[in-house]
Amino acid sequence: MAVQSRKKTTAEPHKAATKDDFGPAIQQYQAAVQLLQEAKYDKAKAAFQKLLPSAPPEFIERVRMYVNTCDRQLQSHALAFNTPEERYDYAISQLNTGYFEEAREQLNLVLKDNPRADFAYYGLAILDSITGRAQECLENLAAAIEINPRNRLQARTDNDFQNMSDDPRFTEMLYPEIP
Questions:
Q1: Which among 27, 107, 137, 174 counts the fewest CB atoms within 10 Å?
Q2: Cβ atoms of residues 100 and 73 within 8 Å
């Protein structure tokens, strides 16, 4: 019976990656986050994209999310609106897709340029209702109604205020008692 010889292998058994193996990647990640916090979106995006191939597996989704965040910020800074209504329409599109802070920022910019823009107050009231900010919703809706009383009628049938329907202050605002 012939005995087959076995070659000895000198390769080490596969070991799991440790935190130390990702030291440079973690430092790159921290630097990219710092750039993002400093609103240097183009540099942050480049840093995150460079990091993707070497990122620890548990960081990959977060890095992708930050790349998307940089893209959104770069896109919003490149926007140019000819009228407050165009900015409002963009803000509502952001609200409808769940980008609430971007929507709030755009609506506030409409008000900065035109403090009597009832539609912007109305949009903020909707945003506040959706995000559970009852007091702010009431304040913004009151401003919208004061500038344009027709907003009261619109709010009565607007499904975006469903979170406010049980608030007696909301009901009183929409259906005031006439002396």
A1: 27
A2: no
Tally of CA atoms within 13 A in the half-sphere of 67 that contains its CB = 13
Residue with the bigger pLDDT between 72 and 168: it is 168
Return the structure tokens found at 110.
């409409």
Angle between helices 41-51 and 23-37 (to 10 degrees): 160
CB atoms under 10 Å from CB of 112, counted, come to 11
Helices (H) and strands (E) in the chain, counts: 9, 0
Q: For residue 88, give Cα distances in angstroms to 8, 55, 106, 117.
A: 72, 39, 7, 10
pLDDT top residue among 146 and 54: 146
CA angle 87, 71, 82 (to 5 degrees): 20
Residue 116 is given by DSSP the state T
**Residue 13 gets which letter from DSSP?**
P
Per-residue pLDDT band at 20 (split at 50, 70, 90): low
Confidence class of residue 16 from pLDDT cuts 50, 70 and 90?
very low
